[in-house]
Here is the input.
Amino acid sequence: MRLGTRLSSRLRSGVFSSPLYHGSVFAQVRCFARVSTINGIIPSPPGGFVTTDIKIDMNPSFGGTYARGVFATREISFGREIMNVPAFAMYISEHKEESLREQVMIITKDVFSKLVYGTPQEKEYIKTRVMTLMSGGVSYFTREKDVFDFAEEVRPPGKEGTICNGASYLLSGEFSSYDLQKLPLIIDFNRFEVEYRGRRGMCLFTEASYFNHSCEPNVEISVNYNSVKSNFFLSARAVRPIREGEELYIHYMPGNNLPISRFALAMKRRWGFECTCVKCKSRSVGAVTVLFLVLLFPITVFIRRLLIGRSEEKHRNL
Ligand SMILES: [Zn+2]
Here is the structure.
């Protein structure tokens, strides 16, 4: 059964959490995903589906190795569901309002514990899917020691927890402390903010993170809580016919009514880029025109008066 949970804009509190520590080795480091091996058809995750009508490819208009996008492999008709995927990780607050940082760290712990004592499939998914997502912002850890302290708290339940923990996992070399340092940045960058019965939280929908943004998207997403499966599901549907080879876009801040300048600033803060779609360009050109007219009109009137005044003076002198 689907309940009326709605995706409350990916932004909402969309400002990077301020780092608790300053002057660290990691602070101010801007991280990006490694060159991704993820290309082509997106495999369906366990418990969800992604259609083969779409594939991940490089976006030539952005350029560069990191500029991935989702493209149509064949014509997609209006209303077609492109994917319906469960949250790979999610957190919904129980009572209190946790800070953004706390929520991100709770999900980080959850994902990292799947690496330490999860199934081989979960481990593979994190390494090849989650860890290749884009990230940015300021590190959540100050020193490498803090990364190890955090890892040490992650222990398998029962007897196994006494002999192995997250720190020993890091030392095994399968996953480095650098990777763990990057994990909360990835979660922060790719989180979808959700709301369920007045409780707020966030989800990680890896497959939906491949979409780029447009203010006039051809795909719309909706996030609902499935109480039977006790998880959030994201559904993406085409909101207009899409041609073969066309890129699929979603809106990163659906339903916002921000003026162009504040919208651009919010996008830049949260995702580090300014939207250059046709709508934004025409809106900013419009804003500049209005500003120009507002300034130009009084100046023209002033110059005109000045000139008239001078010519009248000339006439009087004659
Ligand atoms: Zn735009």
